[in-house]
Design goal:
By secondary structure, the chain is of the alpha/beta class. It has a single domain, classed as Rossmann fold. 36% of the residues lie in helices and 21% in strands. Strands 1-2-4-3-5-6-7-8 form an eight-stranded mixed sheet, sandwiched between helices.
């Protein structure tokens, strides 16, 4: 499905039946990444999985990328679908977009799981971002990008430039405690304690600042500790939280 909004043709897929469950992928990923967590849509949920601007099937003609703009794109998608107060999962950059959504329009998100998403980019992450390039990704990494993103080499280069550009961005990802305190969504913050980009101390900052939040630190977990073999444990905890079953 496609929605023309904010200068882009936003592509998204819907799978399963039941309560809407928004899934937002991370940087250089795509909407279908939820299948790396669980092969089937969770029972009782309709998974709504967009390719955010510049990713997958969604081109980004302007070449400009901010997580706040992604949030506005997805808010427009929810309005198009006639949805509010949805449940949501966002991983890494998708989690950053969710934080923007929950602060721009607190009515949009009823409950959310924010995975490996920082309130700001620390210097250790910026150092890695500055080195991001085709060479650092290697042949296998570039082949994966070409498989996922369908608009050819200009799109791939745009994504590489986007990731490297985060190193010098200070206003888009800058969630201060007063700003986070406006979030009304029930929020589960998920962080790996071995994340090479974002120290786990950032998770505690989010937990302290977001009023209705819980924190789950994944032992020995890296960045995005919810994929592959970790997927079953993640879903076993995240879905009850989203449903409101946690005491």
């Amino acid at each position: 499905m496609v929605l023309t909004v904010n200068g882009i043709d936003l592509h998204w897929d819907e799978t399963g039946d039941g309560a809407p469950l928004l899934f937002l992928h991370g940087g250089t990923g795509c909407g279908a990444d939820w299948r790396h967590i669980t092969s089937e849509p969770p029972a009782g949920f309709r998974v709504i999985a967009p390719d955010q601007r510049g990713h997958g099937r969604t081109a980004n003609p302007s070449g400009r990328f901010t997580f706040r703009q992604c949030a506005q794109d997805i808010l427009a998608l929810l309005a198009h679908l006639g949805l509010s107060g949805v449940k949501a999962i966002g991983v890494s950059g998708g989690g950053i977009a969710l934080l923007h959504m929950a602060t721009i329009d607190p009515t949009a998100i009823e409950s959310m799981v924010v995975v490996s998403a920082p309130p700001y980019f620390p210097e250790q992450a910026r150092a890695i971002m500055r080195q991001y390039s085709a060479a650092s990704l290697g042949e296998a990494g570039m082949a994966r990008l070409r498989t996922v993103h369908v608009h050819g080499e200009p799109q791939i280069q745009q994504l590489v430039d986007m990731a490297r550009g985060f190193a010098d961005s200070y206003d888009d990802v800058n969630f201060t405690p007063p700003y986070l305190s406006t979030i009304t969504a029930r929020t589960l913050v998920v962080f790996g304690d071995q994340d090479p980009l974002y120290p786990v101390s950032l998770a505690f900052e989010l937990r302290r600042a977001i009023p209705r939040s819980r924190l789950w630190v994944v032992p020995n977990g890296g960045h995005g500790p919810v994929f592959g073999s970790a997927g079953a444990a993640f879903m076993a905890n995240a879905l009850p939280f989203l449903r409101g079953d946690w005491a």
